[in-house]
Write a structure and sequence with these properties.
CATH superfamily of one domain: FAD/NAD(P)-binding domain
Strand content: 15-25%
CATH class of one domain: Alpha Beta
Strand order of the largest sheet: 2-1-22-18-21-20-19-10-11
Largest sheet: 9 strands, mixed
CATH architecture of one domain: 3-Layer(bba) Sandwich
Length: 554
């Protein structure tokens, strides 16, 4: 990250070094702090890993979570700087307004009901396509009525679209069951599923929508949240599109106290059964003996034994870096990794202002800004020439969304801006140390920062001249802090090929080794959380039924 600050009338001032964040969730790792035998080790403290650990703890298991970063949470962590706080990956969450929803119930289950939610505005997303604007409204009826009012000749297409995303929502249950079955029954189950369910489920989003309507603006509005998966409609699977659309259908919410409250409220559940979440805990290798995982070796050489090892580090890290190469080759994982690709990287601009969100008129609405409706062409143009217009710009106002903000950071406000960016654009600096990548790198970041700020000023001109502090992250930041080696934001690319991979399941081909997180079901905080539940169920075997009953009763 590179920072600029405004001081009086002197304009942007270069930072002499970034002050460390004061937000620390989890306990700092020391070998002497390890306490006895553990039933399971989880590598990575993203929401998938924390959910798996919490669910196992609910069943009496002592679980050790090892996080290489200075704070727990993965992409749900927060950081602070210069009197501000930002969330790096939690911008809004759907399906938590009703305590009866499955999503809300699972959040309550893994936090013992300690995580609270605040609703955003009914108009929670606003799309801009050049000069065109569309406001997305919460609630199925309000959303459909607004679509039909804007596109009066497309009522049949809109109804058919809503039916199709509902069908995918039902089908995801079958996909989840399939991932829990042993390999042979899972193959038979998949054949039956494909025979019984519509063939449009795993075609591209563009193909499915083109069957319903040739109205390009309607297609653009329906896919206006494609940035939530990082895949534009001509490449994305209709599965991921539908999961995102359905997730936000009844509105959007924000965790009270910010994203760090997620890890903060889950960790006590893990600790209740004797487990712990350690930070600064860098795993060097998964230890395998006689074909079974038996624990991990830390970078400091310490070996920690457990009969179960669960990786929340992503499949590329798990099979390409953490697992001994000979073991990975024997089980055919390098060939499997060739069938999937990493998702896109991103630029993240974190902004602080010395006035309150209410005084500045900041909304509880996300902005999605596109040059026009030609998403794929715009992505290609930006990849070829970074001076081309940004293919997408997302703007979030976390201090406006969080009702606890003003009491925690009075008379301040924060804004976050995200834009897609290819790793290749920054790759030549990847071997340079963080914070010391040179003038050319800093100049490029400064250029991007100024351009992103102009996007903000165009929509909210009252903010011009009010920026107190801002800093920009790049895909190299994602690589450095999260170990995603291509700077990917969403794990694997969510194209149709990704959803055909039978090996993306909790149980691996190595005894005692399991996977969890966003590579199991799909990207997104809640999908990664549900993957955590699936993995815990798989680890428990027959006792997994007891876990599901416990969850059902909660």
């Amino acid at each position: 990250m590179t920072a600029i600050a405004r001081q009086g009338n002197r304009g942007p001032q270069g930072s002499k070094g970034l002050a460390p964040s004061t937000i620390r969730i989890g306990r700092r790792y020391r070998p002497q702090r390890l306490e006895g035998d553990y039933d399971a080790i989880v590598i990575g403290s993203g929401i998938g890993g924390l959910t798996t650990a919490a669910c196992l703890s609910k069943m009496g298991k002592k679980v050790l979570v090892l996080e290489q970063h200075y704070t727990a949470g993965g992409f749900t962590h927060s950081y602070s700087r210069n009197g501000y706080e930002w969330d790096v990956g939690v911008h809004y969450i759907g399906d938590v307004g009703s305590r009866r929803s499955m999503t809300r119930r699972l959040y309550d289950f893994i936090t013992d009901g300690q995580l609270q939610w605040a609703p955003m505005d009914d108009n929670y997303d606003r799309f801009f396509f050049g000069q065109e604007r569309f406001d997305v409204l919460a609630g199925k009826q309000a959303y459909v009525e607004s679509l039909k009012a804007r596109f009066p000749g497309e009522a049949a297409a809109i109804d058919a679209y809503m039916e199709r995303i509902a069908m995918v929502g039902k089908a995801i249950n079958a996909l989840s069951v399939e991932k829990l079955l042993p390999a042979a029954p899972a193959r038979l189950f998949k054949l039956a599923r494909k025979a019984l369910l519509p063939d449009y489920l795993n075609r591209t989003t563009h193909e499915v929508l083109s069957e319903l309507t040739d109205n390009k603006m309607l297609q653009a509005v329906l896919t206006g949240q494609w940035g939530d998966s990082g895949v534009a409609p001509k490449q994305s699977s209709f599965i991921i599109h539908s999961l995102i659309a359905g997730h936000y259908l009844h509105g959007a919410y924000y965790p009270v106290g910010g994203a760090s409250r997620m890890a903060e409220t889950i960790i006590p559940v893990i600790q209740y059964s004797g487990g712990e979440v350690f930070t600064y805990a860098n795993v060097d290798q998964i230890l395998v003996e006689n074909g079974r995982a038996r624990g991990v070796r830390m970078v400091d050489g310490t070996e920690i034994n457990a009969p179960v090892v669960i990786s929340n580090a992503g499949v590329n890290n798990t099979f390409g870096r953490l697992l001994p190469a000979a073991v990975a080759r024997k089980q055919g994982y390098p060939r499997q990794l060739d069938k999937v690709t990493p998702s896109i990287g991103h630029l993240g601009l974190y902004i602080g202002i010395r006035e309150s969100a209410s005084a500045l008129g900041l909304p509880k609405t996300n902005f999605w800004i596109y040059p026009d409706v030609n998403h794929e062409e715009n992505l290609a143009a930006f990849a070829a020439n970074p001076d081309a217009p940004f293919p997408a710009v997302y703007i979030s106002f976390p201090s406006a969304k969080d009702p606890s903000w003003e009491s925690r950071y009075p008379n301040t406000a924060t804004i976050e801006i995200v834009a897609p960016a290819c790793f290749e654009l920054f790759e030549k600096w990847r071997d340079e140390p963080w914070g010391k990548r040179g003038a050319a790198y800093d100049d490029m970041k400064q250029n991007f920062t100024e351009r992103l700020l102009e996007q903000l000023y165009e929509k909210l001109p009252q903010l011009r001249g009010k920026i107190d502090y801002c800093e920009l992250s790049t895909p190299l930041s994602t690589d450095f802090f999260c170990f995603y080696q291509r700077g990917e934001m969403y794990g694997l690319n969510h194209d149709p090929q990704r959803f055909e991979q039978d090996w993306l399941r909790p149980k691996t081909r190595i005894g005692g080794l399991y996977l969890t997180g966003q590579d199991i079901l799909s990207c997104g905080v809640s999908s990664a959380m549900f993957a955590g539940l699936l993995t815990a169920t798989s680890v428990l075997g027959l006792r997994g039924v007891g876990l599901l009953r416990e969850f059902a009763r909660s």
